[in-house]
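Shapes recur. One chain:

:::
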Amino acid sequence: MDRPTISPGSQRKPLRRNAIRACAAAILAIAAGMAIAADPKLLPPEQAFRFSARALDDRTIEARFAVADGYYLYRDKFGFALEPVTATLGAPGLPAGKVKDDPFFGKVETYRGDIVIALPLTAPAAGQSVVVSADSQGCADAGICYPANRQKVTLVMPAAGKGPGPLVEANPRKKNWFN
């Protein structure tokens, strides 16, 4: 009686170099993706440092900055201007900042969170439309500094004795389906 020959199956083939390279490339791609996910996404400057303003009365403008978490502005990098030139600004009322030993500028004062700055006008501007330009510069805690940034808003100055005008944002948040 002859027994049928039973095959043990095909022999294992050694891994090919291309397969090893493909596996190594896949592992590197996954590791790179994880590193990118761990790297912080930086906000554009107009979102990191949101500027808005309102006319409090015919002689005072209130400038506001809402600084996002993880970001800060330099106190000595603020500058304000008014258009038309017929209306001029006095010295801005900057609040005291927090002293920081900055790797870029040395010992400086910085702001985080919300900042409110009073901008006095040297002459009343009741009923006039004015453009307020605000220059600022700041950094992210991640170690990235932004170049100087200019943002503008247009305000209508209230008549003498009237209440403050509405808050005007330089870059209003866009509405989406969920808010």
Q: What stands out?
A: The CA atoms of residues 109 and 157 lie 31 Å apart. Residues 17-38 form the longest helix (22 residues). The radius of gyration is 30 Å.
